[in-house]
Design brief:
The chain is an alpha/beta fold and 211 residues long. The protein has a single domain, classed as TIM Barrel (Alpha-Beta Barrel). The chain is built from 4 helices and 9 strands. Strands 3-1-2-4-5-6-7-8-9 form a 9-stranded mixed beta sheet. The chain is globular, with a radius of gyration of 17 Å. It binds S-adenosylmethionine, ligand 2KA, iron/sulfur cluster and magnesium ion. The site of iron/sulfur cluster has 12 residues, from loops. Catalyzes the complex heterocyclic radical-mediated conversion of 6-carboxy-5,6,7,8-tetrahydropterin (CPH4) to 7-carboxy-7-deazaguanine (CDG), a step common to the biosynthetic pathways of all 7-deazapurine-containing compounds. Homodimer. InterPro entries: 7-CO-7-deazaguanine_synth-like (IPR024924), Aldolase_TIM (IPR013785), QueE_Cx14CxxC (IPR030977), rSAM (IPR007197), rSAM_sf (IPR058240). This is 7-carboxy-7-deazaguanine synthase.
Length: 211
Protein backbone atom coordinates (compact mmCIF):
# COMPACT_ATOMS: atom_id res chain seq x y z
CA UNK A 1 0.00 0.00 0.00
CA UNK A 2 1.23 3.50 -0.84
CA UNK A 3 2.11 5.68 2.12
CA UNK A 4 -0.42 8.28 3.19
CA UNK A 5 -0.15 11.62 4.95
CA UNK A 6 -2.44 12.22 7.88
CA UNK A 7 -3.93 15.69 7.42
CA UNK A 8 -5.99 17.37 10.13
CA UNK A 9 -7.24 20.18 7.88
CA UNK A 10 -6.32 22.31 4.90
CA UNK A 11 -7.69 25.74 4.02
CA UNK A 12 -6.92 28.95 2.16
CA UNK A 13 -6.28 32.05 4.28
CA UNK A 14 -3.67 34.74 5.00
CA UNK A 15 -0.51 33.89 6.90
CA UNK A 16 -1.16 35.61 10.21
CA UNK A 17 2.28 35.49 11.82
CA UNK A 18 5.92 36.42 11.31
CA UNK A 19 7.71 37.96 8.35
CA UNK A 20 5.19 36.61 5.80
CA UNK A 21 2.17 37.98 7.70
CA UNK A 22 -0.49 39.19 5.30
CA UNK A 23 0.48 36.84 2.46
CA UNK A 24 -2.19 34.58 0.95
CA UNK A 25 -1.42 30.94 1.71
CA UNK A 26 -2.87 27.47 1.71
CA UNK A 27 -2.42 25.96 5.16
CA UNK A 28 -1.74 22.24 5.31
CA UNK A 29 -2.07 21.08 8.92
CA UNK A 30 -0.55 17.68 9.63
CA UNK A 31 -2.02 15.58 12.45
CA UNK A 32 0.08 14.71 15.50
CA UNK A 33 2.95 16.24 17.46
CA UNK A 34 6.00 14.90 19.31
CA UNK A 35 5.69 17.43 22.19
CA UNK A 36 2.03 16.89 23.19
CA UNK A 37 -0.58 14.22 22.50
CA UNK A 38 -3.14 16.95 21.83
CA UNK A 39 -5.44 15.60 24.57
CA UNK A 40 -6.40 18.17 27.22
CA UNK A 41 -5.90 15.61 30.02
CA UNK A 42 -2.24 15.31 28.95
CA UNK A 43 -1.53 19.04 28.62
CA UNK A 44 -0.11 19.66 32.12
CA UNK A 45 2.37 16.82 31.69
CA UNK A 46 3.39 17.67 28.13
CA UNK A 47 6.73 19.13 27.01
CA UNK A 48 4.80 21.89 25.19
CA UNK A 49 1.88 23.07 27.34
CA UNK A 50 0.60 26.29 25.71
CA UNK A 51 -0.49 25.00 22.30
CA UNK A 52 -3.46 26.86 20.78
CA UNK A 53 -4.23 24.23 18.12
CA UNK A 54 -6.35 21.11 17.69
CA UNK A 55 -4.19 18.76 15.63
CA UNK A 56 -5.69 15.38 16.55
CA UNK A 57 -7.13 13.20 13.82
CA UNK A 58 -8.33 13.98 10.32
CA UNK A 59 -11.76 15.46 11.04
CA UNK A 60 -11.11 19.10 10.05
CA UNK A 61 -11.89 21.00 6.85
CA UNK A 62 -10.54 18.92 3.93
CA UNK A 63 -8.95 16.54 6.46
CA UNK A 64 -8.17 12.93 5.65
CA UNK A 65 -5.48 10.41 4.76
CA UNK A 66 -3.96 11.33 1.42
CA UNK A 67 -1.41 9.78 -0.88
CA UNK A 68 1.42 11.97 -2.17
CA UNK A 69 -0.36 13.05 -5.35
CA UNK A 70 -3.73 13.42 -3.61
CA UNK A 71 -2.21 15.67 -0.96
CA UNK A 72 -0.47 17.93 -3.50
CA UNK A 73 -3.64 18.03 -5.64
CA UNK A 74 -5.70 19.05 -2.60
CA UNK A 75 -3.34 21.96 -1.88
CA UNK A 76 -3.33 23.02 -5.54
CA UNK A 77 -7.14 22.90 -5.67
CA UNK A 78 -7.33 25.46 -2.84
CA UNK A 79 -5.17 28.09 -4.60
CA UNK A 80 -7.33 30.65 -6.46
CA UNK A 81 -4.88 31.39 -9.27
CA UNK A 82 -2.52 34.33 -9.69
CA UNK A 83 0.41 35.45 -7.56
CA UNK A 84 2.99 32.97 -6.37
CA UNK A 85 1.26 29.93 -4.90
CA UNK A 86 2.29 29.53 -1.26
CA UNK A 87 1.66 26.64 1.10
CA UNK A 88 2.39 26.71 4.84
CA UNK A 89 2.91 23.24 6.27
CA UNK A 90 2.06 23.21 9.96
CA UNK A 91 0.47 21.02 12.58
CA UNK A 92 0.96 19.51 15.02
CA UNK A 93 4.55 18.94 13.99
CA UNK A 94 4.65 18.81 10.19
CA UNK A 95 8.18 17.42 9.95
CA UNK A 96 7.05 14.13 11.45
CA UNK A 97 5.44 13.54 8.02
CA UNK A 98 6.45 16.16 5.44
CA UNK A 99 9.21 14.70 3.26
CA UNK A 100 11.14 15.47 0.05
CA UNK A 101 8.69 13.69 -2.28
CA UNK A 102 5.74 15.76 -1.04
CA UNK A 103 7.75 19.00 -1.22
CA UNK A 104 8.71 18.05 -4.79
CA UNK A 105 5.08 17.37 -5.69
CA UNK A 106 4.12 20.81 -4.30
CA UNK A 107 6.98 22.45 -6.23
CA UNK A 108 5.76 20.66 -9.38
CA UNK A 109 2.43 22.43 -8.90
CA UNK A 110 4.16 25.82 -8.67
CA UNK A 111 4.12 26.28 -4.88
CA UNK A 112 6.66 27.87 -2.61
CA UNK A 113 6.72 25.62 0.45
CA UNK A 114 6.97 27.00 3.99
CA UNK A 115 7.10 25.10 7.26
CA UNK A 116 6.22 25.98 10.84
CA UNK A 117 8.25 23.67 13.05
CA UNK A 118 9.18 23.29 16.70
CA UNK A 119 12.79 22.75 15.65
CA UNK A 120 13.20 19.24 17.05
CA UNK A 121 13.27 17.49 13.66
CA UNK A 122 15.79 18.00 10.83
CA UNK A 123 14.35 20.11 7.99
CA UNK A 124 14.33 18.70 4.43
CA UNK A 125 16.76 20.64 2.16
CA UNK A 126 14.26 21.74 -0.45
CA UNK A 127 11.87 23.72 1.79
CA UNK A 128 11.71 27.37 0.75
CA UNK A 129 10.83 29.06 4.05
CA UNK A 130 11.68 27.73 7.50
CA UNK A 131 10.05 29.14 10.63
CA UNK A 132 11.35 27.61 13.85
CA UNK A 133 9.53 28.10 17.15
CA UNK A 134 11.68 26.65 19.95
CA UNK A 135 10.06 25.16 23.02
CA UNK A 136 11.50 25.05 26.54
CA UNK A 137 12.63 21.54 27.46
CA UNK A 138 12.72 20.34 23.84
CA UNK A 139 16.12 19.84 22.23
CA UNK A 140 16.58 22.29 19.36
CA UNK A 141 18.24 20.65 16.35
CA UNK A 142 17.31 23.26 13.73
CA UNK A 143 19.65 26.21 14.29
CA UNK A 144 19.44 27.91 10.88
CA UNK A 145 16.44 29.11 8.91
CA UNK A 146 14.49 32.13 7.72
CA UNK A 147 12.75 33.10 10.93
CA UNK A 148 12.94 32.17 14.57
CA UNK A 149 9.60 32.86 16.25
CA UNK A 150 9.75 32.44 20.00
CA UNK A 151 6.50 32.35 21.97
CA UNK A 152 6.96 34.68 24.95
CA UNK A 153 7.10 34.37 27.84
CA UNK A 154 8.34 30.87 28.46
CA UNK A 155 9.55 31.09 32.06
CA UNK A 156 11.78 28.04 31.90
CA UNK A 157 15.55 28.33 31.90
CA UNK A 158 16.88 27.73 28.40
CA UNK A 159 13.93 29.29 26.56
CA UNK A 160 14.89 32.92 27.13
CA UNK A 161 15.49 35.11 24.05
CA UNK A 162 19.28 35.51 24.54
CA UNK A 163 19.68 31.75 24.13
CA UNK A 164 18.76 32.12 20.44
CA UNK A 165 20.22 35.41 19.18
CA UNK A 166 23.47 33.88 17.88
CA UNK A 167 21.69 31.28 15.75
CA UNK A 168 21.55 31.45 11.95
CA UNK A 169 18.17 33.03 11.29
CA UNK A 170 17.34 36.08 9.16
CA UNK A 171 14.45 37.28 11.35
CA UNK A 172 13.95 37.08 15.10
CA UNK A 173 10.38 37.40 16.37
CA UNK A 174 8.77 37.24 19.78
CA UNK A 175 5.11 36.22 19.64
CA UNK A 176 2.93 36.95 22.68
CA UNK A 177 1.74 33.71 24.22
CA UNK A 178 -2.03 33.49 23.84
CA UNK A 179 -3.29 32.32 27.20
CA UNK A 180 -6.60 32.73 29.02
CA UNK A 181 -6.72 35.66 31.43
CA UNK A 182 -3.32 37.16 30.56
CA UNK A 183 -2.31 39.69 27.91
CA UNK A 184 1.33 38.99 27.10
CA UNK A 185 1.56 41.69 24.43
CA UNK A 186 2.88 44.47 26.74
CA UNK A 187 5.72 42.23 27.89
CA UNK A 188 6.72 41.57 24.28
CA UNK A 189 6.49 45.27 23.43
CA UNK A 190 8.77 46.08 26.35
CA UNK A 191 11.25 43.35 25.46
CA UNK A 192 11.50 44.35 21.79
CA UNK A 193 11.97 48.02 22.69
CA UNK A 194 14.79 47.11 25.07
CA UNK A 195 16.33 44.54 22.67
CA UNK A 196 16.00 45.85 19.09
CA UNK A 197 17.24 42.65 17.48
CA UNK A 198 13.77 41.28 18.19
CA UNK A 199 10.52 42.18 16.48
CA UNK A 200 7.01 41.47 17.64
CA UNK A 201 4.86 38.93 15.78
CA UNK A 202 1.16 39.29 16.47
CA UNK A 203 -1.28 36.51 15.60
CA UNK A 204 -3.13 38.79 13.20
CA UNK A 205 -5.50 36.06 11.92
CA UNK A 206 -7.05 35.95 15.41
CA UNK A 207 -7.70 39.71 15.24
CA UNK A 208 -9.15 39.41 11.73
CA UNK A 209 -11.38 36.50 12.69
CA UNK A 210 -10.04 34.26 9.92
CA UNK A 211 -8.58 30.75 10.12
C1 LIG B 1 0.53 25.22 16.47
S1 LIG B 1 2.22 25.43 16.05
C2 LIG B 1 2.48 24.15 14.84
C3 LIG B 1 3.89 24.07 14.30
C4 LIG B 1 4.97 23.52 15.24
N1 LIG B 1 4.52 22.41 16.02
C5 LIG B 1 5.50 24.61 16.14
O1 LIG B 1 5.29 24.55 17.35
O2 LIG B 1 6.13 25.52 15.60
C6 LIG B 1 2.23 26.94 15.07
C7 LIG B 1 2.77 28.18 15.72
O3 LIG B 1 1.89 28.57 16.75
C8 LIG B 1 2.65 28.95 17.87
N2 LIG B 1 1.79 28.84 19.06
C9 LIG B 1 1.25 27.72 19.56
N3 LIG B 1 0.50 28.00 20.66
C10 LIG B 1 0.57 29.34 20.84
C11 LIG B 1 0.02 30.24 21.79
N4 LIG B 1 -0.75 29.80 22.81
N5 LIG B 1 0.27 31.55 21.67
C12 LIG B 1 1.06 32.02 20.66
N6 LIG B 1 1.62 31.22 19.73
C13 LIG B 1 1.38 29.90 19.80
C14 LIG B 1 3.79 27.96 17.83
O4 LIG B 1 4.87 28.34 18.66
C15 LIG B 1 4.14 27.98 16.38
O5 LIG B 1 4.96 29.09 16.07
N1 LIG C 1 -3.86 32.48 9.45
C1 LIG C 1 -3.06 31.68 10.14
N2 LIG C 1 -1.75 31.96 10.24
C2 LIG C 1 -0.97 31.08 10.92
N3 LIG C 1 0.39 31.12 11.08
C3 LIG C 1 0.78 30.03 11.73
C4 LIG C 1 -0.33 29.24 12.02
C5 LIG C 1 -0.23 27.87 12.57
O1 LIG C 1 -1.17 27.38 13.21
O2 LIG C 1 0.81 27.25 12.33
C6 LIG C 1 -1.45 29.92 11.52
C7 LIG C 1 -2.86 29.66 11.47
O3 LIG C 1 -3.40 28.71 12.04
N4 LIG C 1 -3.60 30.56 10.76
S1 LIG D 1 5.10 21.84 19.37
FE1 LIG D 1 3.70 23.08 18.11
S2 LIG D 1 1.94 21.73 17.63
FE2 LIG D 1 3.17 20.69 19.19
S3 LIG D 1 2.09 21.18 21.07
FE3 LIG D 1 3.70 22.75 20.79
S4 LIG D 1 2.81 24.47 19.64
FE4 LIG D 1 1.40 22.71 19.51
MG1 LIG E 1 -2.46 28.56 14.43
Amino acid sequence: MARTYKIKESFYTLQGEGAQAGRAAVFLRFAGCNLWSGREEDRSGAVCQFCDTDFIGTDGQNGGRYTLQECADLVASLWPGGGTPYVVCTGGEPLLQLDEPLIQALHDRGFEVAVETNGTVVVPESIDWVCVSPKANAKLVVTVGDELKLVYPQPEWGAQPPAFTDLGFTHFFLQPKDEPGTDNTPAVVGYCMAHPQWRISLQTHKMMGID
